[in-house]
Amino acid sequence: MTAPVPWKKQKREAGGDGAERLPSVDRVLRSEGGAEAIAEFGRTAFTNAVRERLAGLRAAAQADVDAVAAATVEAEAVAEAARRDLAEAARPTLRPVFNLTGTVLHTNLGRALIAEPAVAAAIAAMRAPMTLEFDLGSGSRGERDEHVRGLLCALTGSEDATAVNNNAAAVLLALNSLGLGREVIVSRGELIEIGGSFRLPDIVLRAGVRLVEVGTTNRTHLSDYAAAIGPETALLLKVHPSNYRIEGFTASVPAAALAVLARERGVKLMHDLGSGVLVDLARYGLAREPTVAEAVADGADLVTFSGDKLLGGPQAGMIVGRRAPMEGINRNPLKRALRLDKIRIAALAATLALYRNPERLAERLPTLRLLLRSESEISDLAERVRPALAAAIGAEFAVEIAPCRSEIGSGAMPVETIASVALSIRSLREKHAGRALTALAASLRRLPVPVVGRIGGQRLLLDLRCLTEEKRFIENLARFGQDAAGLP
After folding, report:
1. Distance between CA 205 and CA 200 in Å, rounded?
2. What residues have CB less than 8 Å from 188, skipping those under 6 apart?
3. What domains are defined for the chain?
4. Phi and psi for 400 in degrees, rounded to 5?
5. What are 238-254's pLDDT values in tens digits?
6. Is 334 exposed, middle or buried (0-12, 13-18, 19+ CB in 10 A)?
7. β partners of residue 299
8. Which residues of the chain have pLDDT under 50?
9. Residues 6+ apart with CB under 8 A from 317
10. Contact assessment for residue 280 and residue 297, using Cβ atoms and an 8 Å cutoff
11. pTM for this entry
């Protein structure tokens, strides 16, 4: 948001267009505020910003002489406005926010929060040369997969493992390695679409594999797969419906049965789990999801899954499975194009290491900790922060504490929700209440640390499940209405 320049009203001189009442560029640069801005942003950038400001003022004077020409603009005011312009332009677009949407793994807000040991590992990788592809024992070149291979194999029971940029990349690489120029058989009920209109059939085609659909949207049988297998078949593809559910008159084939069929017919089975789960979530009272270890034990040759969803790590895509097909993946030139850098490898390895101690996982892994947060704890938090929110947004709105349901998000457990508590805001205006709530939501997003909620049922809901920095949140609310641009 561009801050306006304050005007000093004076008597209008006949015949002037207002331009002569503007300070020169040099005068603005020599002002006290100009000197401070030059030290902060550099002379060249600040000079350009001042010129743009003055050009705008000249245009305004010519367009509206009565309103503008009768005013004198102080050099300090121009300097401050130009400084604000530069500060606004320099503000990062990738910014921290308070996620009060009620979606824990919010794709648009970056999915999983990284555990502190993983954050520390990533920082260490950024600050120093690392043994990314260097074997300290032999003094020769090593493999970057070595930093996660052992952990992934131990946690999943697989023979080999690798990690790439995300799960879409993992699926692309696996299909291209095993089935280039050949056929992959998949159930019509598993042709998923993920966020951003990104569809599995598109990935299959880009992998250079011909897609063979079997069964129907709601029912696919083992005989459908068996009938479709031919000399050009490279593999069967099983896709776990992690971001949707089909209910009612349905039938699907378990992965274990597909594994038997694949071995009998001499083809490979690939199982895409989507949201990777390494522990049984039912032990924590959450809905049960198939684990990667179970998919490996069921006989899949390859299993693919994400790192930044229920696994709770950085963005990554894992491929685990039997040694023979993994060798083909490791030789594929595409793997280099899709590989992880040292920062994410460090964070991923540190996240996976947390799973070695499942008894402490719930307290150390932020994703699991947020999912397990009790309704009573969130309710107590709501009682403490409600007064600060009510005072900040003013008497035009009423703030109440209300029960709500949180979602897991990012395609994980799509029909499961968790009991939570929200600050429910309603407008006290009789007319245009919806417009007032929309404007309020926009104002909250303009705070120094934007607050992101959701509007529904003529209420703005701020679900507090993911609010962990109570003091910072209250301090942030104190800036409401003071600085709409979020600038100091």
Report:
1. 9
2. 213, 214, 215, 216, 217, 220
3. 8-90 (no CATH), 98-107+370-477 (3.90.1150.110), 116-360 (3.40.640.10)
4. -125, 160
5. 998 755 566 677 789 99
6. middle
7. none
8. 1, 7-18, 68-70, 484-488
9. 163, 164, 165, 166, 167, 168, 169, 170, 171, 304, 305, 306, 307
10. no
11. 0.88
Picking from 174, 343, 361, 346, the residue whose alpha carbon sits closest to that of residue 273 is 174
* Contact partners, residue 173, CB within 8 Å, separation at least 6: 164, 319, 329, 332, 334, 335, 338
d(CA 160, CA 152): 8
Angle formed at CA 230 by CA 225 and CA 235, multiple of 5 degrees: 60
Instruction: Judge contact between 409 and 243, C-beta under 8 A.
Output: no
**What was the pLDDT predicted at 6?**
53
Token pair, residue 306, equals 């994400």
Structure tokens at 415: 């029909």
Q: Residue 431 burial (CB < 10 Å; 0-12/13-18/19+)?
A: exposed
